[in-house]
Queue: 4 jobs
Job 1
Amino acid sequence: MAPLCSHVLFNIPLDITCKIRYNVYMYVAVVPNRNSPPAILLRESFRLHGVVKNRTLTNLTHWPAEKVEALRQVLKGNLSPAERLQDAFHITRSWPHGHVAAVLGWLERLGLAEVLDRQPSPLRDRALALIAHRLLEPASKLATARALDPQTSHSSLGEALALGEIDENDLYRAMDWLVERQPQIESALAGRHLSDGTLVLYDVTSTYFEGRHCPLAHYGYSRDERRHNPQIVFGLLSNGEGCPVAVEVFEGNLADPKTLAAQITKLRERFRLQRVVLVGDRGLLTEKRIEEELRPLEGWDWITALRAPQIQKLVSAGALQMSLFDERDLAEITHPDYRGERLVVCRNPLLAEERRRKRQELVAVAEKKLEQIAEATRRKRQPLRGTERISYRVGRALGATTVAKYFRWEIRQGTLHYQRDQARLDQDAAVDGVYVIRTSVGAARLSTEEAVETYKRLASIERAFRSLKSVDLNVRPVHHRVPNRVRAHVLICLLAYYLEWHMRRALAPVLFDDEHPGEARTSPVAPAQRSASAQRKAREKKTLEGLPVQSFQDWLRDLSTIVKNRIQPKLKSLPAFDVITRPTPSQAHALKLLQVAL
C-alpha cells in the first residue's frame, strides 16, 4: 500500500507511513495484556545485518474493530490501487435531503410537534409528515404514502421522522386524529399570535370539489371559475401581520356573511378574547352583520368598507362631494346612518382610470351583442320573433355581465329597441376610484391614515389564499368524501402555510418578497409601490453579495439537490454510512438565514 493512501484512509501519522521501505513488512499485531484487553499494535518487520527485527509504529487499541480489520486487509494487499478510491464503495441509495432539513428544522423551531400533541406518538409523526410533505411536494394521500415509504421514498423525510413502512390508510388515520385536535391546535396558535385588543383579519374563499358524494360539497359562487363543479367554502383567521391562526370549512353554498357568527364565537369562547378589532371586506362585514353580531358586543370594533350602493347614497345625500379630493386623496366624514363610526373617503386616480376603461369595454361588448339581436329581429329571412325568445336572447347577452343596468330596452312590434342609460353611466363614473373605509375605532387609537392602511392588510389574506390554492400548497381540487377528512385536508394546508409564512420571513433577503413594504408609498391611498431594494432584486436577480434571488419554491428545489447518500464499503466487515452533499455557497447562505444545520 502507498504511504499517502494509508495516511488518508486510516489517519496514520504521516511521519510513520513515510518509513515504509521495499524491504519492510507492516502488520497488525495482537499482544495479550494479562487481565486487560489485548493491545492492538501496528508494527513493521525488517531485516538488519541479516537479523529480523520488529518495531512498533503506533498503538491501535482505541480503534474500532472494523477499522483495524480494514487496515489488516489493506496491509495484506487485498485491495488493488483502483479499489482504494472510487471502486472501494457502493452508493446504495440517495435521498434529496436539504429541503427536508430546512422544513424539519423549522417544524422544530416553531414547536409544531408540541402544538399538535405534547406526547410523542406514531400518529403525531405521521401528521407532521403530512404537513411537511404538503409544503415540499403537494400530492394526494396515496402519492404521499409512496413518497414516505422506505421502499419508494422520494426524500429523506420518512427516514428523518422514523416513520417506517407506511400506507395511505395510516395517513387517513393520522388525518382523523389531527382533525379531532383542531380546537386545541388553533387555541395554541391563537395564544401565540393573538391577544386582547389585537387586530384580527378574516376573509373567505372557495375551492372546487371533485365528486358529488360529500355533504359539504354544494354549488355556489365559484371564485375558481368552475361553475360545473360543486365546491366548499373556508374562512381564514390571521393576526394583523397575516400569520394564520385558524381555518374553518363550510358548505359550498353558504354566503360569506353567514360564516361570521362562527368566527365571533371562536374568538370569544375558544380564544377568550374580550377586545378585538375585526377587519373584513365589504362583502363579509355587511350592515346586517355589524348591527346584529358586532355592535352588541362590548369592546369589539371593526374595520370594513362601504358597498357601491351605500357610496351612491352618500353622494345623493350630498355627504360625499368630489371637492373633498381637491387637495388630498382621502378625507374623513361622519353621517347619521353610521352612528358612532368614522368614514374615511378615499380616491385612487389610477383605480378610477382602470374602472372607467373596463366599464367602457364591457358596455361596448354588451352593446354589440344587443345590436346583433336587434338585427336578427329585423332581418327578412327567418327573423327572430316572439317576445319570450327575444327576451331570452337579451337575458343571455346581459345576464352574465355587470353592465345590464346601463341599458334600457323594450320590444315594440316584434323588434328590439335599446339605448344606453347615460345618466346611470355618468352617475357611476363620478365615483370611479372612490372607496369608503368604515370603522368604529376612535381617532385617538387609530388615525385616518392608519385606518386605510389597516384595511389594506387584508391583502395578506389574499396572498395566503393564492399560496394555499395554487402557488405552493395546492389545496384544490379536493377529492375526499368524508366531511372530517375534508376539514383535515384544509387544516393540513393551513399548518403548512403557517410553516411557510415563518420560513419566508427568514428567507426574505434571497426572495423576491419586499422586505420593506410601503416604504416607497407617499399616501396610504396611493397604489402600492415596491421598495428600491425589492426593485433591485427583481431587476438583477441577485443580492448585494452576488448570491441568487429565487422564489420560495425554487429555493426548496435548490436545497433538494443537497443529497444524503447511503455508502456501503466493499469490505463486508465495514458498516454502511451516510454522506451529505456539501452545500454550494448560495445554499449555505440560505441555510444560514434559516438557521438550519444539515
Note: Residues 349-378 form the longest helix (30 residues).
Job 2
Amino acid sequence: MRASGNTLVGSHHPNRLRAVATTGLSRTLLLGITYSGAILVAHWLAFLIRFEFHPGAEFRDLYWRTMIWMLPGELLALMAFGQFRSLLSYFSLPDARRILLASASIGIVSLIIWYSSDRVYAPPRSIIVLAFLLDAAAICNVRLAFRSLRERQRSKDNSNRPLRRMVVVGAGDVGASLIKEMKSRRDLRMFPVALFDDDRAKWSTHLHGVPIVGRPELLIGGKFRADEAILAMPSASGKRIREIVQIFNEAHLRFETVPSIEQLVNGEVRASQIRPVQLEDLLGRDLIKLEMNRILDVVQGRNVLVTGAGGSIGSELCRQILKYSPKRLLIVERCEVQMFLIEQELIGLGCKTEIVALVADVLDDNRMREIFERYKPELLFHAAAHKHVPLMESQPYEAFQNNTIGTKKLAKLSVEYLVERFVLISTDKAINPTNAMGATKRLAELFLQAIQKHNGNRTRFMAVRFGNVLGSSGSVIPTFKRQIAAGGPITVTHPEVTRYFMTVQEAVGLVLQSATQGEGGEIFVLDMGKLIKIVDVARQLVELSGLKPDIDIEIQFTGLRPGEKLFEEINLDSECMIPTEHPKIKRFMGHPLPFEELSEGILRIQELGVGMDGNQLKREFQTILPEYKPCITAI
C-alpha cells in the first residue's frame, strides 16, 4: 500500500471497506424487499386466475402454506443465480435468463412435492405453471423499473445539455447497435432522426423505429435537419468512406465513426464507442487474418525480449505479444520516460505475464550481457533504431552505431546465449538505399544473413521490412496535423512522391506472423497495399478537419530532401522471392556475404568513422553496399 499525502491508496482502507459493506447491505435489503413483494403478488395473482378471482378459504390457506417455503426458496435461488449481486440500475438479457432459471427451479421443486402426493404444501399444477410465468415477469419488471429510474435520473442530470439530432450512415448490425444505444440511454442526449444505407433493399423501411431513407448522398442539399452524423460502416472500402466524408463536409455536418472492423472483431471495443474519422479509415485496409495458433506456439511460455520497447513499433509489439501469454516479457528501452509509460500501460492490462522493465542501451556491452545472462531470452524482437531520415542524413555515424553496430552486438549475444529466434525490424528504405538511415539498416540485414550461416550458430535470424507506419513519431501524419492546427500551410516535398502506409497494429501483427515462418536468413516484406501520394494524404487530412485543401489550407511543395526517393521499392534485384503460407507476407532470400569479410568491413567503418565527415562515411558504406546511392552534400 502506498501513501499519498494523508490519504492512503489501497483497497483495505477501513472507511472505504465500511462504505462498501454498507452499500452492499443496503442493496441486498432493497432487492430482498422488492423481490419478496413481486413474488407474493405474482403467486397470489396465479391463485386468483386459477379460481376465477374467487378462491375459497381453503385455497387462501394453501397460498400461505406454500409461500412459507416458496418465498425463501425463491429468494435463495435468486441469490444463487447472482441476482442479489447485480447493480440495481443495470438489467440485460443475461439477467433475465438467470431470473427465469431461478423461477423455473422453484417450479420444478413444487412439481416434485406435488407428485410426491404431499399436496398440503404444493399448489395445483396449473398454479405452479402460472406462478412461474407471472413470477419471472414480475421480477424482471422490478429490475426494469430500477433501470428506468436510473435512465430518468440520468436524463434529469443531463437536461441542461442540448439534444442533438443524429443521422447514421449504415443500417447494418453496427448501425442497429448504435440506434438501440441512443434510444436506451437518454443521458447521451442523442436523438436519431434518419438512417442512410447503400443497400436499396433497406430503403423505406425502419430500424428500431428510425426510417432508413436512402443513400447518404441525400444529405446534400439540407433536406434533413441534423446536428451530427455517425459513420457506421466499419467494413466499407476506403474509397467509399472518402466519398461519405466528402458528403458530410458538403452538408456541413460534424461527423464521427465507429471503431475499425479489426477492433470490433477482436472484441477490443463496442460499436457504440464512436470516435473521430481517422486517416486509417480512408485507406480502407483489409482486415488481416493472423494464424494465431502458430504465433501462440512460438510465444507462449517463453522469455521474450523487445528492444526499443517505448517506440511506436516496440510498444505495439509488447501489447500484442502479451496476448499470447509469454512466460516473461523483457522490455528494453534507453529513454526512461518512454519506459515508464509503456511499463505502466502493460501492467494496466492485467496480464499474468511477468513484465521486466530494463533501462538499457543496446550499445552497452556489459549491460546487455548482464540481461542475457540473467533472463535467458528465447525470442528477441529488435525494434531499437534511429529512423528519422533527414536527421540521420546529417549524422550518419549515429545511424550506423545504433542501427548496424547495435544489431551486430545483439546478434552475437543471441548466438552465445542460444536465443531461438531473432527478428529485426527493418524498413523498405533499406532497398537500394539513397539515405544513410536506409543504408545502415541494410548493413544490419546483411550481418544477420551472414551470421546465420556462420559456424556454430543455432539462432534463426530474420528481418521484416515495411513502410511508413501511420501516426508513428517522425511520420508525416503528426506533422501535417500540427500544420493544419496552425492554419497551414502544409509542406509536401514533391507532388509525385509516394509511400506505402500501414497501421502499427497490422504491421506488428504481420511481424509476429513472420516470426513463425522464418527458418533463418530470410527477409520478410509485408504487403503494404498500394503506393499512396503524400499530397493525397495531406488533402484527406485537411478534409477530415472539415476544411478544404488549397482554399482553407494551402499546400506548398518544398522539393525533395537529401536522401529522399520519389517512391519506395519492395525488394532488391538480387533477392529471389519464396512463397510463404500467409498471403500478406513475402519472403526474400539473398546471397549472404562472407561473415569474416563483412565483419571486417563493418569494424573498419566503426573505427574510422569517428573521424570522418558525413560524405566520407557514406562513401565507406558504398564499399560494402554498391547499390547505395548516397546524397553527397556540400560541407
Note: The first helix runs from residue 14 to 50.
Job 3
Amino acid sequence: MVSVRQRRVAIVLVQSALIAFSAALAWLLRFDFAFPRPKFFLLALLPLLSLRLLALAYFDLFRDNWRSSGIRDAAEIAKAVLLGSAAFLVVDRWAAAPSFPVSVCCIEALLTAGALAGARMSARAFFEKAQQREGRIKARPLRAADLEALLGRKQVQFNLEPARQRIAGRAVMVTGAGGSIGSELCGQLLALAPSRLVCVDRAETPLFYLQQAHTGAEVETVYRVADIADRARMGGLIREYDVRVIFHAAAYKHVPLMEENLEEAVKNNVFGLLALLEVADEAGCEDFLLVSSDKAVRPTSFMGCTKRIGELIVASRPSARMRCLSVRFGNVLGSQGSVIPLFQRQIDSRRQITVAHPEASRYCMTGAEAVALVLQAFAIGSRGDILVLDMGKPVSILGMARTLIHLSGIAQEKVKIVFGGLRPGEKLAEELFYDFEQRSATGAGKVLRAQSRVTAWPELHDRLRALEVECAAGAPAGIRAQVKQIVPQYQWVASDSTGGMPAARPGERPRSGVSAAPHGVSGRMADREKISCP
C-alpha cells in the first residue's frame, strides 16, 4: 500500500515536471520554436521552480485529493501561480542580467495554471470512469481536504500551550474514551504530557481499538471498562490512579433513539454524571469538564434536555475544591453515527440521499477542531462556566449532501436527493445560546462564555430527586413532565405510545407552552393534541 508520504512525493514530482514543461513550452512559443540562450533558461528554471513549489505549498496544493478536485482547487491554483509569478519577476529583475522576458513569464503562468488544473481534472475524470465501471464507490475515510469542503472553510488551528500548562504532569481521565470525541481527545491529551491517561468506556471493542492506536505512547496509559453510573467502580479508579482532571464525554447522543429510551437517557446522561461528580469530588479531583451540546439550547429532543440538565448540575452543584465547567458545541463531521457516514452508505448502496428538510442546517466542526476548542476552554474556564465554542455559520445539510456527492466522484444527476421530514426530536436549525444568556468574550478568541442566573442547588437537587422517582415508576409522561419542570424551555408533543414526541416547526423557534409538528412529516403527528407540561 502506498503511504501518504509517498503520495505527497509523487504529487510534488508531477507538479514539478508540469511547471518545467510549461516554462520550456513558453520559451519555445515566444521564440517561434527556437531555443535561444539555453544557458539563461536553465539558470532561471531553478528559482522559478522553487518559487512555484513554495507557492503551491502555501496554498496547500500538495494534498492527494485529485479525485475530488473542483472549482475551489482551480481558484487556489490561480492564486498560487500569481504569487509565484510575482515573486519570480522580483527575483529575476534583481539579477544582474534578467533571464526571462516578461512575455515569457506571462505565457508560462498561463500554461502552468492550465497544466496544474488540467492534471487534476484529468485525474478526477479517470477516477469517475473507474468508479462507473465498478458500479459502486468506496465509503473511504474523509480526508482533511474533504472535511474542509464540507465545512466550506479551512480548519482552524489552535494554540494549545495554555492547555499544556494545566495538563502537564497531572493524571487525566477521559470517560467515553472510545467514542469519536473521546478518542480524539485522548490523542490530543497524549501530546500535552500528562503524568497518566486513564481511558474509560463501557464498550470494550472501541476501547480495544483505542488501546491499539496508542501503542508506543510515551505517556503511561490505562484502559478500563466501566459504567460511569457505578459509583464504587469509578471512585476506585479515580483513587487508584490519583486522577486530578476528568473530561466527561460519555453520554447517549442519538436523538430519535433516546425518544424511545427515556429512563436510560436520564440514567446515563443525568444521574451517571451526578454520581461521577460526587465520587470525583470525594476522591480529591481538581478539574471536571462536561462535554455538552447545542441541542441543550431550547431543546425539542429528550437527549437535548438531558444535556441541559447536565449543564445546570455542573454550574450549580457546590464543590469546595473541584473546578467544574461545561463546553457546548455542535455536530462533529464524520463522527460515529453522524450524518456523513450515513450519507456515504446511502450513496454507495442506493445512489440516494435522504435529507430531512431543504432548509435544515447545523453547526459543524471537525473532531480535531472540537477537541482543540475543548482544551482551550478547559485552560481558560472558571468554576461553573458554560463555555460555547464559535463554529462559524451553520452549514446547510442539503449543501453538505451535494458536496459529498461531488467528493464521491459521481455525477450529481446520478444521485437522487429526497426529503424525509424531521425525525422525532429534531429541529430545523440549532442554536448556541438561550435568549436570557449573556455572551461575553474569554481569553480564547473562539470561545465565548454564556452567563445567566444559576438555579440554586437545593432547588435543582429536589427536582432531580423527583425525576428519579418518575424514572423508577417508568411512566414516560411523568418523566417528561418532571424534565419540563427542570428545563421549562423543553417542547414536546404527546403520543399514546411513547408519552410524548418532540418536534419543532421549521423556521420557527419553540415557544413556551406551545408545541408544533414538523413540516414535511406524516399527518398523524400534525394531528396530535398540542400540549405543554404543567
Note: Residues 102-134 form the longest helix (33 residues).
Job 4
Amino acid sequence: MVRFYTSNIYKYLQAKLLFEAYGLPLLYFKRSTAEYDEDYSLGTRELLRRAIEQVRHIVGRASLFFVEDTSLRIEALSSKDEDFPGLAVKDWFARVTFAEVNRQLPRSLRLRGATIKSDIALHVPGLQEPVYFHGETVGTISHSPPRFRKNPLYPWLTPKTFNGWFVPNGAERRLGEMSIEEAMEFDFRARALSALIERLEEYSAMLNAPQDCYSIHERIVDPQQQPFLFPPTGEAFIVVGRTCAGKTTFGNVASLQGRTVIEASSVVRSLRQPKDQHLSPFQFADQLLSTKGRDIVARRIVDLYNLGPDSSFIITGFRTIEELEVLRAHCPQVRVVLIDAAQRTRFARFLHRGRDRARKTPPSIEEFRRLDREQESFGLLRVAEDFADIRVTNEGTLERFGVQVSKVLANPSRPQARGVSTDLHPPGGLKVHRLYRCLVVLAQSGRSMTNAEIADAAGGTIDPDAPRYAGRTMTPNNVNKILKNAVELAVRSETITGETAYQISDIGRAFIRLLEELSRKPRTQV
C-alpha cells in the first residue's frame, strides 16, 4: 500500500483521485505534530531527502511512501540563480494580496511569467536513496484578481491559492477555474504524480505482479499514525450509467469523502498488454470479455480488493450482467445505483469534455451515439433499471448532482433529494415482467422461436409446476418490440418462410439468473 505523507488534505485528495484513476489505492498519513522540518535553504532535493529520512524513522524502512513539496518562480521577482518565492510559496502566499503582487509586476503579459513546480520523493523499501519526480507548469499571472468560486467537488481548484492567479501557457483560463479534465492536463502536481504512478507501474511489471502489488490485506497500525481521514461505512455501491451520465463524478464525490472507489475501466486497462496497443478501448474490452469471460473484471476486483459481505466500496463502470452476478454473490449487501440523463444532456457534456481535451474538431452526435451502442452491446445498460436499487436523474448542475450523490451516500435507504428514486420495481415481480417472460420461454424451448410462438407460450403456463403468468396477454407485435429493445439478450433471425424469430443468448440467460436470484433473496433494503 502506498502512503502519502502530508499535512495538506487537498493535496492528498488530488493525489487519491489520480491514483484511483489508475486503479491504485492511496493512504493518507499525517503526524499529529509538525509534518517534517522544512529548511528552505537546503534546496528541493535535500529538503525532500531529509523529509524521507525523518518519516522513515516513524513508519519504518519497509513502508512505501512519498512526500511532496511545491515551489514557485515569478520571473519578474526572481534572480538568475534564485527563485522567488521558491519553496516558501505557502508562507509567502499567506501574507500577500493579489493587489500587492500586481503592483510589483510589469503590465506586459509576456513579462508576468511564472512557473509552478511540484517535486516528489518516493521511499522504496531496500533503496538507500529516494526516487525523485518532477512536474511543472509554465504560464503567466493574470492582470485581475480571481472572481470564480471554489469547485465544490475538487477543492484544490480554488481562487484562494496561486491557482486562482495563474493562467498556464496554452490555456484560456486560470488553473483554479478549469474543469477537472482540463486541470489534469495543465496541473503541475498532476504531472509529478503521473510520473510517480508510471514508475510504480514499472516496478509492478518488473515483479510480474498486478498493479495492486503494493496492497496488503492486514494493516499494521503505527501508534503515531493518524487513522483514516474518514472511517469506513460498511456501505457498498455499484454505479452504472451511459457515457457522460455522471459515473466518474459520483466516484469523485465518494472519493473526497474517503470512500474506496474502484473504476472498472482502470482494471480493464491494467489487463492490457503491449500486444494490445493497436486495439481501441472498446475492441480490447470486447476481446478481453470474449477470451477471459464476461465476469473477468468483477472477479479481478473481488480478488484484488478481497471483497466480502462486510466490505465498503464504490465500483463505477460495470458493463455486463455477469459482473453484477459476481459482486452480488460475494457482497449481497451491495446496492446498484443507476445514473440517468437524457441523450442531449450527455452529449452537451461530451462536447465540453472534447473542448477540455483540446480536440482539433468537436465530436459529432454520431460519434457519441456510436459510443452508446458500443457500451450497450456488453448487455447491462439496456436492462440496468431491472437491477437498480437507486436511480439518480442527473439533469442539473454539477453542484446539484453533488448534493444528490452525497444524499445517496449518507442515507441510501431514504436519500431525500430531488431526482433520486428508490421505488423502481413493480409489485408483481417476475410474473408481470414481459422481457423475463419472453426470455424464459426461449430458454426452456432451447430453440429459435417466432414472435407468435413466444407470445402464445408467454401468455400461458410454461412449466407444469409454475403458476400461470399474470399481466396482459402479449401479441406477436409486443414480443418483437420487447426483444428488439434488448437485442443483446436474444439473437434475431428469420425462418425459411420469412418470419422473424429469436433465440436466447448467453447474456439473456445471465439476465434470467440474476433476476431470479434477486427475487429469491430480498434486495438490500431501500
Note: The radius of gyration is 27 Å.
